[in-house]
Fold each of these.
Amino acid sequence: MTNQPMDRFKSQVLLILSEIPEGECIAYGELAKLAGFPGYARQVGSLMKSLPKDTKLPWYRVINAQHRISFAENTDSYLRQRKKLEQEGWIIVGNKLMKNEKHTKK
DNA sequence: CTTACGGCCCTGG
DNA sequence: ACCAGGGCCGTAA
């Protein structure tokens, strides 16, 4: 028996995360809020960090509230996430995520 | 646009 | 119990 609230938090976050459709993204804080734990953005981050590298969960669809990838550009974590997102139709311009629309809006 | 700072909340030493 | 540190966030300079 461990900390029940935290266990609940984790399972909720993972559940919601598993239901994020392809091509969509969510912020750490948003995810926490949906899970019923507003203010737990950092915990979501730690949880993502704890996920196994080969996880099926779309951890890469979680980004920060500034629509940026929360990793330094020179890290491979950053590259892995970026690659995944680009595969799902996102474009990263100046570190910002943008939907890949047919007509680049002007 | 880039930094800094305070606030937030758990973990691990 | 104290303290430092995170895949964070919003505001201010």
Amino acid sequence: MQESQSARRNASLRILAAARAIAAREGVAHISFEAVAREAGLSKGGVLYNFPTKRDLMAALLKEMLAEHDALEAGLPQDAQHRTLRRHLASLNGLDTADSDLSMSILAVAAAEPDLLDPLRRALEADLARIEAEATDANLGRLIFFALQGLRFHALLSLPGGEPAPRRQLGETIMEMIENAH
Amino acid sequence: MQESQSARRNASLRILAAARAIAAREGVAHISFEAVAREAGLSKGGVLYNFPTKRDLMAALLKEMLAEHDALEAGLPQDAQHRTLRRHLASLNGLDTADSDLSMSILAVAAAEPDLLDPLRRALEADLARIEAEATDANLGRLIFFALQGLRFHALLSLPGGEPAPRRQLGETIMEMIENAH
DNA sequence: TCATCTATACCGACCGGATGGTACAGTCTT
DNA sequence: AAGACTGTACCATCCGGTCGGTATAGATGA
């Protein structure tokens, strides 16, 4: 194990990964310092050293998720129309491979400390504005945006329509609507 | 207060109302037996007599919410087209007056015990099927359904676009789309 | 070069509070 | 009196957070 540098210094990434793993396996409610420590292979004190409060841990989790979502835009063709909508669509389609359970933590976080969602609120606010600006029909743009969000939540909560197959099907419908509206 | 029958015999309704009040005031995470008992004006033992486990309490809360949602259909004109979609729209518009925080409990419940959402899953599954059957364009019906759901979740989590004003605005757009598609 | 000092990263025992749940005694209604 | 219902005391557990301590790596200085 090449821990000469990485493990010695800063176990934060390992801790976040451990938290995600626990969320995926046992549910977000089971993210506790002890559990995370066990999963990450260090002590509770070590986790608390990196994230002094649970709030900090959850905030870091959320930040990581938003960053991954934003990173998707890089994979889009430079000249694509409706970039923001496309990014959301891509993010939605990537829900299988990526751990959807991390997103799930948003919900748990929201229940406990609503203001932790502020970064997410700002990001979505900007996205919504961009979508309206990019759209030929602002109303249609909004409609599609919320449909994507609805689809996302259904996927997170295992509600009908959120399974990969129907999700992708509606995704294609939406893609056609996007491309036909120039 | 006419407690001669209702309160004396079966405090369940009072308990559920208390739980909703707590959720609205302090958040879903603060629904505990003791807190509910205090709010409902009885003892913890009393609450536990009516709802032997927390799971039972949460399930009852969810059931109550679903019933209220279904009840909205009665207020719709007999001959209305797209009844199911209209009901969802009505439910969404009623989010302000009704306690949205009850719906919020869905999220917390889902985090703790996902299978409690099964009744909701069945209800939404049926709704989705009905919507597709009622729609002239099944794809459009689905799209609108998920947009409504997205809007609902945004409202629950105080995410952008979920505020009453923009919510109602998009609602009207949707209403027009529904009425123009015959 | 070697002793000392300092900062970083981590360990693990412990505390206090909250919570779900139990036990059981009492009360009210019929 | 019996059963439905309520109140009180209590328990076990979990969890977030504190705290004193350890290990190590580099800087400092004579």
Amino acid sequence: MKLGAGPPRGSPRPRVQACVSLARMERNTRQRAAIRDAIAGARRPLLPQEVLEAAQQLAPGLGMATVYRNLKALVEEGELRAVHLPGENPRYEVGGEHHHHHHHFQCLQCQRVFDVHACPGNLAALAPPGFTVEDHDLTLYGRCGECQPAARARR
Amino acid sequence: MKLGAGPPRGSPRPRVQACVSLARMERNTRQRAAIRDAIAGARRPLLPQEVLEAAQQLAPGLGMATVYRNLKALVEEGELRAVHLPGENPRYEVGGEHHHHHHHFQCLQCQRVFDVHACPGNLAALAPPGFTVEDHDLTLYGRCGECQPAARARR
DNA sequence: TTACGTGCAAAGCGTTTGCAAGAGG
DNA sequence: CCTCTTGCAAACGCTTTGCACGTAA
């Protein structure tokens, strides 16, 4: 039962993009196009390994290092978004700057993830005194429309 | 800029504890006590590395492998809870089954994580129609009391 | 032509595991 | 005394990086 090392949880939370060490990736390469198309063509956030497999069909010989380098660059450019779910490796989906603040819903039965565009808002009051709230992440868990049990086994 | 491998994001969300392959750890060892005390004495979820450093003061010679083995066992026994924050390595805190529902706050400056005992509640309305909400995870981001900019460094 | 991007392989890092020595009961 | 637990080091798996070749512009 191996799990392996995780993703780069290193970088804490790049809320604001500093202008340092940006891997711009300005050239239009065959590999870069394949990676973008692979993600754009998926209906769900993809893991790096899934991106590799999908993009390799468009760009044979594509290597994992290139996938990681481009994912990182595309996220920095705002063309992609990293989707971090608790306890899960990061996935990647399309979503630019103009993509508004939203949250996610994960079905406890089918494990699929959905966007939730509603937001509870003003959560500043929840923090302890002396703390300043600047942002938040919210993940809802439950059952999606397709996984509603015949009866209802709420908790 | 290395980040390193991540934690075992493998298991999605162990809502219910299955009775398979439990690493019981039934003996009362000096190391096990040190690890439990280290976590119980902290006011926030600790990273494995932080647990090691704290527990080593109570049990010199303690190794990281023992920390991981005991963390895993204590979580399986329900004595500890793993705290998964988006894009972060897992942290560990006390909290059995009877431990009440709460959330977390991560300081964008010092990266430490604190418990938030408040809860916005009734988030069921946020989900799309036809979806059933059973639970949620909420993470607040901002600055903790000690990291308030110049102004006042409370607490 | 020339700097940037790619591929490969090796390094990094957090986590897990094999194995022999150590300790609880 | 016997088994479970520990500590060390190697193994693991995902991600990053060094370097030389390939290629967009």
Amino acid sequence: MELEFAAAQLAELGHSTRLAIFRLLVRAGRSGISVGDIQSQLDIPGSTLSHHLSRMIKVGLMQQQRDGRTLFCCLNFQVVESLMAFLVAECCAADNPAVIRAQPECKSGSC
Amino acid sequence: MELEFAAAQLAELGHSTRLAIFRLLVRAGRSGISVGDIQSQLDIPGSTLSHHLSRMIKVGLMQQQRDGRTLFCCLNFQVVESLMAFLVAECCAADNPAVIRAQPECKSGSC
DNA sequence: ACTTTATTTCTATATTTGTCGAATTAATTG
DNA sequence: CAATTAATTCGACAAATATAGAAATAAAGT
């Protein structure tokens, strides 16, 4: 079931607007960034942004914390790290049968 | 425009069936794995599998090479590596303002 | 209380996606 | 060349997604 979870999180990153949000969140660090700041940086309607944020929250990638009128968005760094760890461990680990290395070409017999 | 490209690739990984395919491809290494082998391991209809494969090919994650009657699928390792590099460089690089480290909790002021 | 600012929820709509049976194409074998 | 095996393309449909205006909620300032 962990694969399903990872897939759900990757799907959220797999949208240009949300990946842009993700990037802003990473750069904002643990102090977070307000919804308004994200909106002004990405220049999209609030309702659209809200929709994307709620999706990212739903899969645990980030969370929100209100401070007065403004809502701060903060990446769940440990969740992101788990996702990266999954990709590396399940898929790209150096001790896996097939290590991902830059390979100019597959061997002639196959690809 | 690189973000759009990365998002498109992540979107393809963001589906449980395709992530399972991706995992098989990584483990198959550069010798690849046949469509039939993928199908029998995942136990899904051929047309469904074919649909997912074509999507992954479309964004450059993998390619196919025919050998007689069987088609071998091979991950484009350099493409995958580029994607990982993008995630690390643009989003999670250790020299970025915010490094991704396992953080038990955000500081009290925000999240 | 009213207004402003910040953001969400509601609602509608267009588009994309996922699924899979049936028909088709490709290659090998008898 | 008919039959078999391998895989794709076609076609149809249900479900999920993306977008965004309008209305609602939340908090603060006047």
